[in-house]
Amino acid sequence: MTQVMDGVRRTSAMAMPVLPGRRQVVAPQLGDQPRRYVVGMDGIRRPVPATPREVLANMQAPAPLAAVVAATVAEAATLPEAAPWQLPSLRLPSIEWRRPAAAFVLVAVATTASWLALHTVATPKSTTANAADTAASAPKPAKAAPGVPETKAGLQSIIDNFVNANTPSNWGIVVKDLKTGQTASYQADRQIASASLYKLFVAERIYQRIDVGQLTSGSPAGGGTGETVDQCLTVMINISDNDCGRALGDILGWGGQNQALRQEGYSETDMSTPQQTSAGDVARLFNRLYDRTLVSPSAEDEFLGLLKDQQVNNRLPQGLPSGAVIAHKTGDLDGVVHDAGIVYGPKTDYLVVVTSGNWTAVGTVPPMFADLSSQLWNYFEH
């Protein structure tokens, strides 16, 4: 309290202490209001409050909050470094809230700042949510059905391209992966002169008779061969000897075998003269031999051994790498050229049966077999 010359004690403004080394930052104040003084009967001057009109006419709007903060930060940046407790504190404008205009301005500023803050924060969140929704609704890559192995494509294409390039009407082909069962074929049921492929069915029937005791391997083969049954089986297969083939066929009875062969599923094979067969029937015989369901195990071992010892190797073996094992049988007769067997590879075993004819230039055919054999080896083993 301070006593002025008129003797009236009035409140005086207390000076705000200033921190050492700091300049005092004073926030903007409302404009000074005009005051009128009246001398009373007691001789003392007293202030007369301004009218509402005068207040509104002379009042200055407070500085925006953002401007106050920016001014304070800029001012603080120019001050020398000091301890945290010595930093100037933000002083907001001194506002008389009884004044409606000032209150309205501050409320408007606060409302606008709040809306901007909410909009700024909400927009990225909304964008993130939309991105998440988009990702969730995007189609996912299809997965293979469980338990279904993936199948290599292109085997049938190899067969189709081969026959289309080499007189399509002349071929009957079956190829099968003996590990996976994957199969491709072309005219598998086409019946054609069997040539020496008939000897495969003769060997099967002879081994069956030996298995049941109706024939012994040491029995004479007859037919003027001077060989035993076992000896004729050997040369009939590995050098395709025709005399032994006819002798063993005579033991069985040529056309008499047809009913039994039909019961075994060889629907296109006919042992009557001239002998007929198909790529599908020959493939069925080799498949059973590989599965060990053709004859007895000992007979199958012998049969496979004879086929692996094949001496006529100018067709399918020519397309295989050196050292590859193939158990096969060839056939040649009046423009008919065949080769069929099982190839044993590092990755898989596969059977390939190729029947062909009728050809006018037989000498040009074996290289076609070698070409197809090479393609199949590369497909299965590389």
Description:
Helices cover 40% and strands 14% of the residues. The protein has 382 residues and is α+β, with helices and mostly antiparallel strands. A five-stranded antiparallel beta sheet has the order 6-5-11-10-9, sandwiched between helices. Strand 1 and strand 2 (9-10) form a beta hairpin. Helix 5 packs antiparallel against helix 6 (229-238) and helix 6 crosses helix 7 (242-252). The protein is rod-shaped, with a radius of gyration of 54 Å.
List the helices and strands in order. EEEEHHHHEEEHHHHEHHEEEH
Helix segment tally: 11
Give the termini separation: 106 Å
Stretches where pLDDT is under 50 for at least 5 consecutive residues are: 1-8, 11-33, 79-98, 120-152
Portion in strands: 5-15%
Mean pLDDT: 77
Measured as a percent range, the helix fraction is 25-40%
Number of strands: 11
- Using the alpha-carbon principal axes, give the shape: rod-shaped
The main sheet comes to: 5 strands, antiparallel
Given helix and strand content, the structural type is alpha+beta
Q: Kindly provide the radius of gyration, computed on alpha-carbon positions and rounded to a whole number of angstroms.
A: 54 Å
Strand order of the largest sheet: 6-5-11-10-9
Name a few traits of the molecule.
single chain, 382 residues, alpha+beta, 5-stranded antiparallel beta sheet, two-stranded antiparallel ribbon, 11 helices, 40% helix, disordered N terminus
